[in-house]
Design brief:
The complex is a heterodimer of chains A (265) and B (149). Chain A has 265 residues and is of the alpha+beta class. With 149 residues, chain B is an alpha+beta fold. The chains are: A alpha+beta (265), B alpha+beta (149).
Chain lengths: 265, 149
């Protein structure tokens, strides 16, 4: 059951940060799509929705996405929908339905560091960076793998470097949480191989990335990269599948995504 | 909390508790087309429009609708009736509990997608679950309504 004592629309990020700092039971609201999945008591709900953080902008070297931008906007905005072969739209499409994606925000997804997230797996493959109010800019991968932070996500930055990327997932039904997901990318300095919903958070596989960088991408190295990823990362059990099953299907998903990148040229 | 909003074109001041969700508020006000199904953002039964976009009212905090326009089936009655005729002609409705939410999503689809194919329709409607129809009749009705395929 969700219980909120008071709901405040802040006028600035400074005000939001002060409220967050002042009370350990306060929380910044994202899209609120997953609030009902758990039981929570929030003393002060800090609402950023009047801070003009709903935007997608093109910079010289990156695309900036405001924290309160909906996943549906990320899915359909011309700048993000076409980025890296449309990997974001592909990753977002299975998330429940259009209605929920209109509500969920990229800032809420990043701040939540959801292990089951499809979007986070794709963003890590794109080398996304995150701007935090207090913590400044950092790699999303570091945010996911580090200790939890009590901070505010302000924006997400995606490099515009012409990389090619692909996403693959396995679900028990079309719009269920993923049993496993994978995103890969080929960029100027090599490859990214990322697997999420293991059911742990999205992680890169440095061994697979090095293998691809050394040998190049072809059907044989794609298959081997899948095997290396499955051997390197850890997998666990949850109600959707066992760790052993996840480890078995991991090579297939990674290989499929890599072959998609290969055929995209 | 007091929230000034508009429902189906009419200005309304809503009284609600912090943490109350829009589906609960709307049903209390008598908008009974808004069904409460899963209450976890999964089934689409509670779909309404917020500023013309379909959202799940079970996951939308009422505090957040201030200054915005809410539309329920009651606000698009004529268009909904036209869709209902297509549903009836295809025998696509059984218990009918999911129909208001489905209708709001289909009418949003009509505004957003131009000449969608079957795959695009299925993708757009993936968030609306029906536990008795099997979807085939619904899909035929939607295609007829949209004038595609």
């Amino acid at each position: 059951m969700l219980h909120i004592d008071r709901h405040l629309f802040v006028a600035s990020l400074d005000e939001a940060a002060a409220l967050l700092e002042a009370n350990p039971h306060s929380a910044v609201l994202g899209g609120c799509g997953f609030l009902r999945l758990g039981s929570r008591h929030i003393s002060t709900a800090i609402d950023l929705s009047r801070l003009d953080l709903d935007f997608v902008r093109a910079g010289e070297t990156s695309i900036e996405i405001g924290a309160m931008t909906s996943l549906r906007t990320v899915e359909t905005h011309p700048l993000t929908a076409s980025l890296a072969g449309g990997v974001l739209a592909r990753a977002l499409a299975p998330i429940v339905g259009v209605q929920l994606r209109h509500a969920l925000t990229i800032g809420g997804t990043v701040a939540g560091r959801y292990p089951f997230s499809d979007l986070l797996t794709a963003l890590v493959a794109l080398d996304a960076r995150v701007e935090l109010y207090a913590g400044g800019r950092m790699a999303l991968a570091d945010l996911l793998n580090g200790e939890p932070r009590r901070d505010i996500v302000v924006r997400v930055l995606l490099p515009r470097d012409g990389r090619t990327a692909a996403f693959a997932d396995l679900r028990r039904s079309a719009t269920d949480f993923p049993l496993l997901n994978a995103a890969v990318a080929r960029c100027a300095d090599g490859f990214r191989v990322v697997v999420g919903s293991r059911p742990g958070r999205a992680r890169r596989s440095p061994t697979a990335e090095t293998h691809l960088a050394d040998r190049g991408l072809d059907p044989i190295t794609a298959a081997e990269a899948g095997r290396l990823t499955a051997a390197e990362l850890s997998f666990g059990d949850n109600p959707r599948g066992s760790g052993a099953y996840r480890q078995s299907v991991c090579p297939v998903l990674v290989q499929r995504a890599l072959l998609e990148v290969l055929h995209a040229g | 909390m007091q929230v000034d909003t508009r429902i189906n074109g009419c200005p309304v001041t809503l009284g609600c508790a912090a943490g109350e969700f829009l589906a609960t508020t709307l049903r209390r006000l008598g908008y009974l087309s808004v069904k409460q199904g899963c209450d976890t953002g999964s089934c689409g039964l509670c779909t309404v429009w917020l500023d013309g976009r379909p959202v799940l009212s079970c996951c939308t905090l009422t505090a957040r609708v201030g200054g915005r326009e809410i539309t329920t089936v009651e606000g698009v009655a004529e268009e909904a009736a036209a869709f209902a005729r297509c549903m009836a002609a295809e025998g696509a409705e059984q218990c009918g509990f999911c129909t208001p939410g489905l209708t709001m999503t289909v009418l949003a689809l009509r505004r957003e997608l131009e000449a969608p194919d079957e795959e695009a329709i299925n993708r757009y409607l993936a968030g609306n679950l029906c536990r008795c129809s099997g979807y085939a009749g619904q899909l035929r009705a939607i295609k007829t309504f949209l004038g595609v395929g």
